[in-house]
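Side project, low priority. Logging it here so it doesn't get lost.
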Amino acid sequence: MTDRYTDELFAPAALAHGGAAFINNLSRLVFDPERFEDDSQETMSAKGMGAVYTNTSRLSPLRGPEFSKAQREFIIRDLFRPYAAALEGEVAAQLDRFGRCLLIDAHSFPSQPLPYEDNTLNRPDLCIGYEPYHAPEPLIAALEEVVRGAGWSVDRNTPFGGSYVPLLHYRKDPRVVSVMIEINRDRYMDEATGQRSAGFDEAREMAAQFIEAAVLFEASRNTLLHAESGTL
């Protein structure tokens, strides 16, 4: 479940273009900031993987039967909401300064589907996630061209879709452009040992090209990276 090394892969390029890097240093098994807080709005809550997971990736219990509604609220109040507010503040700062904000939502995914995933979906070298409201078609097409030009395979919203947008702006504010980049871990690490592979530098270069293309498309330097290092 760990998006290992994503901060190292993506942050240098974001910072090089004058952006900010917003790094989540907690495992999503503690809380998942990219879920809806309300389980009734979150489709993954049906698998026990809402904002506060009750199941593991193997769909076995993560928290025991003694885990209470009050304990969940503690995590939401002390971790989930402050995280969301802090990221919202970063986006607001970009909007105040530039009038727009480009948010790159950086992730990785395993080469083989985990038990909770749909194993019929394609698993390309790189997945671009987005919602049309927050990412114009020409931007996505330009990013696909960059990825394919490097000899990598790419899909849209497969095997994962969407991209993080603070709720204050979600489907309300087109000034917030958000695109998710998910790199297949097979491209940069040994998934059995967790160690960087010989492809790590190439993956970092791919991330840099992706970010540069997005920044140039937006014709601004208001880039905010949201990445998850997945450490506990």
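Brief comment: The mean pLDDT is 93.
Revisit when time allows.
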